[in-house]
Amino acid sequence: MEGGKPSLALVYQAVQALYHDPDPTGKERASVWLGELQRSMYAWEISDQLLQLKQDVESCYFAAQTMKMKIQTSFYELPPETHNALRDSLLTHIQNLKDLSPIIVTQLALAIADLALQMASWKGCVHTLIEKYSNDISSMPFLVEILTVLPEEVHSRSLRIGANRRTEIIEDLAYYSSTVVTLLTTCVEKTGSDEKMLIKVFRCLGSWFNLGVLDSNFMASNQLLMVLFQVLQRDETSTNLHEAASDCVCSALYAIENVDTNMALALQLFQGVLTLETAYHMAVAREDLDKVLNYCRIFTELCETFLETTVRSPGQGMGDLRTLELLLICAGHPQYEVVEISFNFWYRLGEHLYKINDAALHTIFRPYIQRLLHCLARHCQLDPDHEGIPEDTDDFGEFRMRVSDLVKDVIFLVGSMECFSQREQSNAVRGVAASGPTS
C-alpha cells in the first residue's frame, strides 16, 4: 500500500464512510481504499488491532472478514514462527467478541477453521478447541460454530491445500468425530430446549455427516438421532428449527448411501423417517408449506438412499414399499412444488427397472407408477378459467416440461395405451407430452 501503514484512526474513518456516508461517491472511495488495505501486508496487524479495540460492529466485522480473507488467500505471507501467535490471537478475539454479533463470530470461526486446515503444526485442532472451551457454557455457541465450519471448509476452493494435506485433515477429523458428537449431545443436555442452540447442534452434526467421517455404529445408538426425530414430530417446532433438523436428517441419509456397510444406522434412520407420516399430515392440515416441503425432502432422500434395497428386495425389510407410499402421499399435495422434489427419485427408479427388465419386478412397481402418473396428470391440468396456451418459460410451464420428461422415462412400466385409457388422465398427460421434446 502506497504511503506506508495507515493509522488505525484513518482505517476506522474509512469503515465508517463505507457503512454510513450518505454520498455514494464517498462510499465508493472508502470501498476501493479498504480493498487495497485488505490486499496489503498491513492488513494482518490492523485487523488484529481493530478486533482488540472492539469499538463497534462495523469495524469488528471488517476486521474479522479481512482476517478470514487473508488466511484463505495470503497465508503464505506469514512466516511459520508467527502461526501460533495468530491462532492464539484469533481464539482470544472470538471469545471476547462472542456476544457482539453472530456474523462476526461466523467470520472468526471461518478464519480459525481455515487456519487449522493450513497450519500443519496445529495437530489435533478439534481436541485443542474442545478441551479449551467445552466446560464453559457461554463459549459453546462459538465452539459449535467453529466445529460446524471446519468440515465444510475441508473442500473449500479458496484454500490452497494439496491432496495429501486434505487426506491428513480428513483422517484427523474422523479420529475426533465421536468426541464432537459426544460434545453436541452434552450441549443438548445442558441447554435443553434452547432453540438457537439446537439449530447450531443440528447444523454442526449435518456438517460432519456431509464430510462422511462419522462412525455409523456409534451414531446408531446416539440419542441425538432420537432428538432429531422428536423435533420433526412436534407440531410446535419453529420453521427455522424444523429446517435445520430436516437438513440434518437428509445429510445423514445421504451419508449412508452404502446401506449394507451402515446397517445399524440405516435401520434407525429408516424407522425414524417412517414415523413422520402423521407429522406430514398435520403440516398439510395447518397449510404449513415450509414443513410440507421439508418432509417431502426427507421422504425423497429416504427413497434415494434405499433405492437399491427397494429394487433388490421389494416389500422386505428396508425394501419396505411404504417408502413409495410416502412419496405418493406428497404427490397428492395440491402444490406442484411438493411432488417436483421427488422427480429425480422416480427417474432413477425407472432407469433401474428398465435396466433390470424383469417382468415380475415391473408388476410390483407398476401400480405405484400408475398412481404417480394420475397425480401428475391432475397437477398439469390448467385452471378452468385459464385462457390461451401456458407459457413454457413460466414456473408452471417448466413444471409441465419436467413432467413430460419424467413420463417418457417411466411410461414403459405402464404401457402407453393403458396410460391414456382414462380420459381425464389422458387429456392432461397427452397435452403435457405433446409440449415436450420428442424422444
Describe this structure in words.
This protein is mainly α and 439 residues long. Among the domains are: 222-341; 347-439, no CATH class. It has 24 helices and no strands. Helix 8 (140-153) packs antiparallel against helix 9, helix 8 packs parallel to helix 10 and helix 12 packs across helix 13 (239-255). It is globular. It comes from Echeneis naucrates. One of its GO terms (molecular function) is small GTPase binding. This is Transportin 3. Residues 32-94 form the Importin N-terminal domain.
List its traits:
439 residues, mainly alpha, globular, disordered C terminus, Transportin 3
DSSP helix fraction: over 70%
Give the end-to-end Cα distance, rounded to a whole number of Å. 61 Å
SS content category = mainly alpha
What series of H and E elements makes up the topology?
Answer: HHHHHHHHHHHHHHHHHHHHHHHH
Q: What is Rg?
A: 27 Å
Shape: globular
Number of helices: 24
Number of strands: 0
Instruction: Sketch the major β-sheet.
Output: none
Percent strand: under 5%
Pfam families: IBN_N (PF03810), TPR_TNPO3_IPO13_2nd (PF24138), Xpo1 (PF08389)
GO molecular function, one term: small GTPase binding
InterPro entries: ARM-like (IPR011989), ARM-type_fold (IPR016024), Exportin-1/Importin-b-like (IPR013598), Importin-beta_N (IPR001494), Importin_beta-like_NTR (IPR051345), TPR_TNPO3_IPO13_2nd (IPR057941)
GO cellular component, one term: cytoplasm
